[in-house]
């Protein structure tokens, strides 16, 4: 598995047949180095930075990533381009910022789509849950301006590496030369196979972001507790709370176990600066679940704005 310098992966030693995405270079996601070939494809794959894909994964699978925007006081930054996770979380410890996020402008989608038209017969554009971001609608508006060129815009219904796993499923099909209809089918099929659970140190950053009305209503009832949230099918909801950090992590694992059961899984451990805990959690996951692979990745800044420091999350893709 190619990894960003801030990420890590572990091969659990459990090789389950049919559980690897095979890359365009002919190699599987694994610890080996992958070097993808940039060839003309039937379908080009586009996503946004909320998918939390590392640069190396995006390059290997020839995925175009359009950055969302972050506002830190009066400074406008492109997520993952002008600011990286380590810098972002360091800056959060230095002073309180006025933080806001926004979708990419329609013009950025148009530029990407126009460029990809030159080397692909069609485009699939997979984006962060439409319930909490205007990114999906901006992509649809851009696609409408390029009719009759075939562009299929898909709402992943999720975010972070849960969205990333959906994008990678589509990229695998596209790399194999599948038609647009088949690539879309694979992407939509993957949506039902992903899950995302997380524990936050506080709801403060969620409330500041203004995207979740229920968070503002509940914040007074969750004093001195850590909320456990889940993102599934375009809904981010509170599924529990914990008094201590250890209890919160146990509940994360239990929530994942309830969904995954005995299925073969790919899991991404996501963190907003809690790298040591994330690495420990990786080892627990590798021992507890039928893992094909476990990744550890920092949360991209545009999601960190809403999660805040100290958050831990588990994104899961169920292979079967």
Commentary on this structure:
The structure is a single chain. This protein is α/β, with parallel strands linked by helices and 320 residues long. The chain has two domains: 159 residues, Rossmann fold, CATH 3.40.50.10170; 125 residues, Hypothetical Protein Tm841, Chain: A,domain 3, CATH 3.30.1180. It has eleven helices and 14 strands. A seven-stranded mixed sheet has the order 1-13-12-14-9-10-11, with helices on both faces. Strands 3-2-7-8 form a four-stranded parallel sheet, with helices on both faces. It has a three-stranded antiparallel sheet with strand order 5-4-6, with helices on one face. Strand 10 and strand 11 form a beta hairpin. Helix 3 packs across helix 4 and helix 5 runs antiparallel to helix 6.
Question: What characteristic shape results from the CA principal axes?
Answer: globular
Structural class: alpha/beta
Q: If helices are DSSP runs of H or I spanning 4 or more residues, what is the number of helices?
A: 11
CATH T-level fold name of the largest domain: Rossmann fold
Task: Provide keyphrases for this structure.
320 residues, alpha/beta, Rossmann fold, Hypothetical Protein Tm841, Chain: A,domain 3, 2 domains, seven-stranded mixed β-sheet, four-stranded parallel β-sheet, 27% strand, globular, disordered N terminus
């Amino acid at each position: 598995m190619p990894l960003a310098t801030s990420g890590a992966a572990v091969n659990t030693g459990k090789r389950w047949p049919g559980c690897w995405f095979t890359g365009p270079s002919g190699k599987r996601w694994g610890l080996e180095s992958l070097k993808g070939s940039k060839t003309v494809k039937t379908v080009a794959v586009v996503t946004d930075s909320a998918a939390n894909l590392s640069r190396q994964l995006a390059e290997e699978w020839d995925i175009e990533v359009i950055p969302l925007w972050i506002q830190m006081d009066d400074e406008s930054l492109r997520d993952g381009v002008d600011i990286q996770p380590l810098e972002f979380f360091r800056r959060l410890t230095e002073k309180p910022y006025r933080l806001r996020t926004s979708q990419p402008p329609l013009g950025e989608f148009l530029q990407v789509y126009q460029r990809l038209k030159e080397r692909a017969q069609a485009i699939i554009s997979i984006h962060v849950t439409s319930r909490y971001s205007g990114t999906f609608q901006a992509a649809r508006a851009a696609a409408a301006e390029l009719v009759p060129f075939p562009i299929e815009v898909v709402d992943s219904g999720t975010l972070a590496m849960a969205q990333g796993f959906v994008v990678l499923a589509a990229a695998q099909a596209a790399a194999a030369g599948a038609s647009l209809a088949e690539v879309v089918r694979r992407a939509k099929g993957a949506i039902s196979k992903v899950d995302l659970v997380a524990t936050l140190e506080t709801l403060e950053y969620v409330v500041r972001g203004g995207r979740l009305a229920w968070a503002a209503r509940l914040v007074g009832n969750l004093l001195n507790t850590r909320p456990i949230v889940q993102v599934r099918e375009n809904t981010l909801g509170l599924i529990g709370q914990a008094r201590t950090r250890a209890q919160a992590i146990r509940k994360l694992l239990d929530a994942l176990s309830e969904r995954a059961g005995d299925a073969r899984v790919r899991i991404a451990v996501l963190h907003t600066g809690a790298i040591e805990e994330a690495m420990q959690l990786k080892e627990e996951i590798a021992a507890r679940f039928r893992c094909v692979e476990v990744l550890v990745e920092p949360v991209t800044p545009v999601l960190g704005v809403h999660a805040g420091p100290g958050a831990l999350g588990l994104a899961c893709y169920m292979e079967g």
